[in-house]
């Protein structure tokens, strides 16, 4: 695995969005914004992977 991914701001964004989504789903019972945040986090993770492989 490339260690550059750990320095990527896209990875940080992916982690923040994933945690925010889980927080919204579990504590506030807001499934739609929670899952939207998780999906955006997965998209940011894909962008991070693509940008570090190039």
Automatic annotation (TrEMBL):
What does the UniProt keyword field contain? Membrane, Transmembrane, Transmembrane helix
Q: Where do the TM regions start and end? A: 9-29, 35-52
* Source organism, top-level taxon: Bacteria
What is the name of the protein in this document?
Answer: DUF4175 domain-containing protein
Q: Which organism is it from?
A: Paeniglutamicibacter antarcticus
User: Where is the organism placed in the taxonomic lineage, from the top?
Assistant: Bacteria, Bacillati, Actinomycetota, Actinomycetes, Micrococcales
């Amino acid at each position: 695995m490339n260690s550059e991914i750990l320095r990527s701001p896209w990875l940080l964004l992916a982690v923040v969005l994933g945690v925010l989504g889980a927080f919204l789903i579990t504590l506030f019972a807001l499934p739609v914004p929670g899952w939207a945040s998780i999906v955006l986090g997965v998209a940011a993770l894909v962008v991070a992977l693509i940008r570090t492989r190039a």
